[in-house]
Design goal:
Blueprint (H helix, E strand, L loop, with lengths): L1 H16 L3 E3 L11 E3 L1 H19 L5 E3 L8 H6 L2 H4 L1 E6 L6 E3 H27 L5 H7 L1 H23 L2 H10 L16 E4 L3 E4 L7 E4 L5 H5 L2 H7 L6 E10 L14 E11 L4 H17 L8 E5 L9 E9 L2 E10 L3 H10 L5 E3 L4 E3 L2 E8 H12 E6 L2 E6 L10 E5 L6 H12 L5 E3 L5 H11 L3 E5 L1 H6 L1 E6 L5 E5 L3 H5 L5 H10 L1
Parallel strand pairs: 3-9, 19-20, 19-21
Antiparallel strand pairs: 1-2, 4-5, 4-6, 7-8, 9-10, 10-16, 11-12, 12-13, 13-16, 14-15, 17-18, 21-22, 22-23
Helix pairs in contact: 2-13, 2-18, 5-7, 5-8, 7-8
The chain binds glycyl-adenosine-5'-phosphate.
Length: about 525
């Protein structure tokens, strides 16, 4: 694990050093869990969004997009349940004055017990070698059984408390387990309280007339309240989907792990409206479709897994997460939820408007059911950076390379004049003018060619084009491939043909379809 933590630290500093992600307002020491994307980060992020958007709207003729406002009528959040129930249980340590999520403290305690079990298993695996039978060891080893019994009891108590949102019991568990604050080391805890995660502000100029409004904690509600507008204006027939990309805000109590959990982040959500009764089939279909989208990036199938939810929100009848193997373990990147007709019915109730679909085939009206796919852009960004980040030894030197899918890379082609004189920069400019309508290109003139290759590797540029004296004579260049580091002499006129479609989003879209 120490090694993985190390990798994660390196990844975070790589993001900063190469212009991908910076802490927000860094010259003022930053702002907790808020980040800015730099010159390379914004390109990668835009490419991720384009990949998602085009996969939704180009590959499905029954999915259209919208862009709803962040501010919404406050009743939206009453209807959606966020005002009353979008809470986390928080607890403060009186000595360190630090605030924690009570559920996270207990989950960390559970993880510690699991660690103890895993250590016993690893020790035994080393001792017994090939002959080791993990299942048998788990079932018979005294120490493992003891830890497992402790884990089961704690897990049961914790689940019961969370299901009932019994705040006193959550505190009692923290006390009984002798959980200490990692900063002060003490057990001087306050009571557990509910903490609503929505940010609020006021709209209107006078104090009397000001209305409390919220910064949306999810983009989905902007889709639900526009269901009728889109269905009617687009003459949409069920099943159809509405896709949206936009900012969301949550006042997370525990915001850690870089851009994994942020207070301002971006979501890509799609609500797929369907006939009641067909939801489990559509749920299964979207699970598959979304996993295929992830896998087309080429990081390897073993990097992904589903996590089906056993405990469902009261309005959902199926839910799963797509998890990615991050440097800190498998973590949720996307959620796929069968939300029944909960949201549309709630908005109908609170707005007093009829929100239904008239089915021309059966000639009946009903409130559509919804399958939602919801993915965080920033989490997706992190998973891609983690999957792509590689350290290699090349001729005794360290090479850091971002093996990004070429279609997502911030720069597709770097054009590098061997020296910054003798007409080579001008020739590089000429090549740039030739390529820039199709590919994001960059000219780099400073430093040795080796250093420039390393810098391009570090930002994931799939192709480097080196311009030298011979180029002026015969219009050929050296084309270097990022992953293999192989170099080929090619004609400038052939660059288009060689690079072709490989760096375009369409190549990824084709992969999803063909896999
Ligand atoms: N409309 C459903 C919804 O918002 P969610 O599971 O709360 O569901 C969906 O969020 C996705 O949004 C998550 O899978 C994650 O990728 C992203 N997300 C949620 N909270 C986040 C946060 N604080 N920071 C970054 N991404 C977040």
């Amino acid at each position: 694990m120490a090694n993985q933590e190390d990798v994660f630290k390196k990844l975070v500093s790589h993001c900063k050093e190469y212009g991908f992600v910076f802490p927000s307002s860094e010259i003022y020491d930053g702002l907790g869990a808020v980040y800015d994307y730099g010159q390379n980060g914004v390109e990668l992020k835009n490419n991720i969004k384009r990949y998602w958007w085009e996969a939704m709207t180009k590959l499905h003729e029954n999915i259209v997009g919208i862009d709803a406002a962040i501010f919404m009528h406050p009743t939206v959040w009453k209807a959606s349940g966020h005002v009353d129930a979008f809470n986390d249980p928080l607890i403060d340590n009186r000595d360190s004055k630090k605030r924690y999520r009570a559920d996270v403290l207990i989950e960390e305690q559970l993880a510690k017990i699991e660690d103890k079990i895993n250590k016993e298993i690893e020790k035994a695996r080393k001792r017994f070698g090939e002959a080791f039978d993990e299942a048998q060891f788990r079932a018979t080893n005294g120490r493992v059984l003891e830890h497992q019994a402790k884990w089961d009891a704690l897990h049961q108590r914790y689940s019961d408390a969370m299901n009932k949102m019994d705040l006193e019991e959550l505190k009692q568990i923290i006390l009984d387990e002798e959980i200490v604050c990692p900063i002060s080391g003490t057990r001087n805890w306050t009571d557990v309280r509910q903490f609503n995660l929505m940010f609020s502000t006021e709209m209107g100029s006078t104090a009397d007339g000001a209305m409390k409004i919220y910064l949306r904690p999810e983009t989905a509600q902007g889709i639900f309240v526009n269901y009728l507008n889109v269905q009617k204006s687009g003459r949409m027939k069920l099943p159809f989907g509405i896709a949206q990309i936009g900012k969301a805000f949550r006042n997370e109590i525990v915001a850690r792990q870089f851009i994994f959990r942020m207070r301002e982040f971006e979501q890509m959500e799609m609500q797929f409206f369907i006939k009641p009764g067909t939801e489990l089939d559509w749920f299964a279909k979207w699970k598959k479709t979304r996993l295929a989208w992830h896998k087309a990036l080429g990081f390897g199938d073993a990097m992904y897994r589903y996590h089906d939810h056993e405990k469902l929100a009261h309005y959902a009848n199926a839910a799963t997460d797509i998890e990615f193997n991050m440097p800190f373990g498998f973590k949720e990147v996307e959620g796929i939820h069968s939300r029944t007709n909960f949201d549309l019915s709630q908005h109908a109730k609170y707005s007093g408007k009829k929100i239904e679909y008239f089915d021309p085939e059966t000639r009946e009206s009903y409130v559509p059911y919804v399958i939602e796919t919801s993915i965080g852009v920033d989490r997706m960004f992190l998973s891609i950076m983690a999957g792509a980040f590689k350290e290699e030894e090349v001729n005794g030197e360290r090479r850091v390379v971002l093996a990004l899918p070429p279609a997502l890379a911030p720069v597709k082609v770097a054009i590098l004049p061997l020296v910054n004189k003798d007409g080579l920069p001008e020739k590089a400019e000429e090549i740039l003018r030739e390529l820039r309508y199709d590919y994001t290109c960059q000219i780099e003139v400073k430093d040795s060619i080796g250093k420039r290759y390393r810098r391009q590797d570090a930002i994931g540029t799939p192709y480097c084009v080196t311009v030298d004296g011979q180029t002026l004579e015969d219009n050929t260049v050296t084309l270097r491939f990022r992953d293999t580091m192989e170099q080929e002499r090619v004609a400038i006129a052939d660059l288009h043909k060689i690079i072709g479609d490989s760096v375009n989003i369409s190549s990824l879209l084709r992969k999803i379809e063909n896999d």
